[in-house]
Specification:
Layout: E1 3-7, H1 14-25, E2 30-34, H2 43-46, E3 57-60, E4 63-66, H3 68-76, H4 87-102, H5 105-110, E5 117-121, H6 126-146, H7 158-173, H8 178-189, H9 192-203, H10 209-218, E6 219-224
Parallel strand pairs: 1-2
Antiparallel strand pairs: 1-3, 3-4, 5-6
């Protein structure tokens, strides 16, 4: 079995991070192929490997599996450990994954992912405050109910992969997710797979104008740890 996972820039691509960190954490071997964002729209170029013109995409032989959730479900049919073994934890994790996949729109737009910088954000909107409050509530519920240190128990599963980009966002923007939530963020950022993603992000020399403009609009950049 040989997978190829196609992702984009480590600094910017939150959707790419999800299946990548899941497969790394579960020790699922794959060829790692990066297709960087070269412009504000990469649809035409990315259509060569993905029907949506977006990343991530998983290539399995002559089969293409697209979308981070689609890839997760595909892997769950073939490998143990994607979802928690406990039924209650699995139900919680699946609901939380679906919620992240379809929700938190303001968090995405106001706190775009950029691993290598630190930002003093603009004043938070009420909508962003609601997203952060919901994150805090959800994380505290999972950690308390299933014992941590991961969101649905003692081992890394898909729920942690889907909220992994938020761990970077919490650090980038200094978001307050409460003591329990911050403990999870710190635990995630110390995970070897997350450290590898971060190291690769900091080494990147790609800069894409529209992504850089978005991070500038989100607030004042107070530190940039990326390679010059």
């Amino acid at each position: 079995m040989t997978y190829t996972l196609i992702t984009a820039n480590r600094n910017y691509s939150s959707w790419s991070l999800r299946p990548w960190v899941l497969m790394k954490a579960l020790n699922l071997p794959f060829e790692d192929r990066i297709e960087p964002f070269a412009a504000a729209s990469n649809y035409a170029a990315f259509r060569s490997f993905s029907p949506t013109g977006q990343v991530p995409a998983l290539i399995d032989g002559d089969r293409t599996v697209w979308d981070s959730l689609g890839i997760t479900l595909y892997l769950a049919d073939r490998h143990a450990g994607v979802w928690p073994a406990d039924e209650a934890a699995r139900a919680f994790a699946q609901c939380a994954v679906a919620e992240m996949h379809s929700g938190f729109a303001t968090l995405r737009s106001d706190c775009i992912m950029n691993v290598g910088v630190r930002v003093e954000p603009n004043i938070h909107s009420p909508a962003l405050g609601r997203d952060i409050a919901r994150l805090r509530e959800l994380w505290e519920q999972g950690l308390d109910r299933f014992g941590g240190p991961f969101l649905a128990g003692s081992v890394f599963t898909a729920i942690d992969a889907f909220y992994a980009p938020v761990a970077f966002r919490v650090r980038t923007y200094g978001l307050d997710v409460g003591p329990a939530g911050q403990n999870w963020v710190d635990h995630m950022l110390a995970h070897p797979a997350m450290k590898q993603w971060e190291d690769e992000a900091l080494a990147e020399r790609w800069r894409e104008e529209s992504h850089e403009a978005e991070i500038g609009a989100a607030g004042k950049i107070i530190a940039d740890y990326r390679a010059a």
